[in-house]
Structures are given as C-alpha cells and as structure tokens.
Design brief:
With 125 residues, this protein is an alpha/beta fold. The protein is built from 3 helices and 4 strands, in the order E-H-E-H-E-H-E. Strands 1-2-3-4 form a 4-stranded parallel beta sheet, covered by helices on one side. It is globular and about 45 Å long.
Length: 125
C-alpha cells in the first residue's frame, strides 16, 4: 500500500499525480495526504482571504510570485498545473487535506476539499 503525500508545492504535485493515476489499472495509490497545498493557480478561490493577512510566511504577494514561477506560461486551468480544475474524480483514492487556520493557502485547501467531497471522494480534513 502506497500513500502519496506532499506539502505546499509538493501537495500540488501529489494531487496532480493521484489525479492522473486514478485510471491506471496497474497502480493505484492507497491514499493521498495533502498539506497546505496550492490547487488552483488561477487564484479564483477566496473564501478565507481574511486569514491571508495573518499568515506570516505566505502573503498575497509571495503567493502570486509562487503561482507565476510555478505556472509560467502554462494554461492555469490545466489540471496538470491546477488540480482543482480536474473534472473526473470517480476513481480517486481516499484523500486527507490539512491546512492551518491562518494558512495563506486556506482558500485553496478548503476549495479543493469541497470539490473532492462534492464529487464523492472519501475525504478527511
């Protein structure tokens, strides 16, 4: 049994990997554990923006710089860049998403968790 996990940009990569593996009949992760990740590089999720100012490590400017460096000229709605924009979750492994209350990326984590939950993914948060 393999658990795929990542923190911050590693959580993004873990999510992209698990999304792409969900239809691989030769290998299926047992679980994915995502910690404080970025899942929507279009920056369209803002439900918890009031917490961004409390995050001493990732303010909006640093977050934008991170998005720009990671995605560069890529279509930011491409699920291989922004797993939030994936449309198929029918075979996605059970998932745990964790973030801090004052995490600058909380809107990203909460938004992705909501999307997975709405699509029937077994989710712990």
């Amino acid at each position: 049994k393999v658990i795929i996990s990542g923190h911050s940009s590693g959580a993004n990569i873990a999510a992209v990997l698990c999304n792409s593996l969900q239809h691989n009949q030769g290998f299926s992760p047992f679980h994915q554990y995502l910690l404080s990740g970025g899942y929507d590089y279009t920056d369209s999720l803002h439900d918890f923006d009031e917490y961004v100012n409390e995050d001493k490590m990732l303010d909006k400017e640093a977050q934008k710089m991170s998005f720009d460096l990671y995605c560069q000229d890529t279509n930011r709605k491409d699920p291989k860049c922004s797993p939030y924009w994936e449309t198929e979750f029918s075979n996605l492994c059970p998932t745990t998403i964790q973030c801090g209350e004052y995490d600058g990326g909380r809107s990203q984590s909460e938004g992705y968790a909501k999307k997975l939950s709405e699509n029937g993914v077994q989710l712990t948060k």
